[in-house]
Amino acid sequence: MADIDVKVASWKLVEVGRLVLIRSGPYEGKLAAIVEIVDHRRVLVDGPSSEENKIVPRHVLPLAHATLTHFTIPQLPRAAGTGPVKKLWAKNEIDGKWAKSAFAQRTDRSERRKNLSDFERFKVLRLRKQARYEVQKSYAKVRAATKA
Q1: In which family does this protein belong, per the annotation (predicted)?
Q2: Cα distance between the two ends of the chain
Q3: 85 by DSSP, 3-state: which?
Q4: Distance between CA atoms of residues 147 and 45, nearest Å
Q5: Residue 32: strand pairing partners
Q6: What is the value of pTM for the model shown?
Q7: Distances (CA, A) of 103 to 20, 35, 59, 68, 94
Q8: What local confidence, expressed as pLDDT, does residue 143 receive?
Q9: How many whole angstroms separate alpha carbon 115 and alpha carbon 49?
Q10: Burial class (CB within 10 angstroms; exposed 0-12, middle 13-18, buried 19+) of 20
Q11: How crowded is residue 77: how many other Cβ atoms within 10 Å of its Cβ?
Q12: Looking at residue 148, what is its pLDDT?
């Protein structure tokens, strides 16, 4: 047999301390940490964000309503109360790390695009056309230089 080393994708594990993005329900789009695993379909989550509009109260969440992220809060004890979760959340700078993630930036960009006025959409269209024109112009120069 071949000597193959198989590794489990550990960031996809449902574990205490894993951060989840809530996909549906009253807290849709907010971040929370898994505090306890209730059963194979439900987890207890708590989201003590430092921003007032992003706080998620402690509640049981079906895993079908959550997306696992690659962020974790290390050394979070099982069934920890909101106080210790909040301290570890702040210590690990979860809000800052999440804001820098590609997923959060893409979500913010789509939200901004949804809320544009007609004139602002027109300005975006013009800017995209200008950028495309510059790219095509530089590509044509490179293509002409390779033919010569």
Answers
A1: Belongs to the eukaryotic ribosomal protein eL14 family.
A2: 54
A3: helix
A4: 61
A5: 20
A6: 0.74
A7: 12, 23, 24, 12, 14
A8: 94
A9: 25
A10: buried
A11: 13
A12: 72
Eight-state DSSP code of residue 39: S
Place of tokens 């940490």: 33
Q: What are the per-10-residue average pLDDT scores of the chain (148 residues)? A: 72 86 92 94 91 90 93 90 91 92 92 94 96 97 90
- Which residues, in sequence order, are CB contacts of 140 under 8 Å at separation 6+? none
Percent helix, strand and coil across the chain, each rounded to 5? 45, 20, 30
pLDDT of residue 61: 95
Amino acid identity at 7? K
Q: What is the pLDDT of residue 53?
A: 86
CB 77 within 8 A of CB 34: no
Do residues 43 and 37 touch, judged by C-beta distance below 8 A? yes
CB atoms near residue 93 (< 10 Å): 12
> Which tokens in the block code for residue 27?
């807290």
Burial 99-135 (b: 16+ CB within 10 A, else e): eeeeebeeeeeeeeeeeeeeeeeeeeeeeeeeeeeee
Look up residue 112 and give its amino acid: R
* Tokens at 63, concatenated: 């895993």
The CATH number assigned to the domain with range 18-115 reads: 2.30.30.30
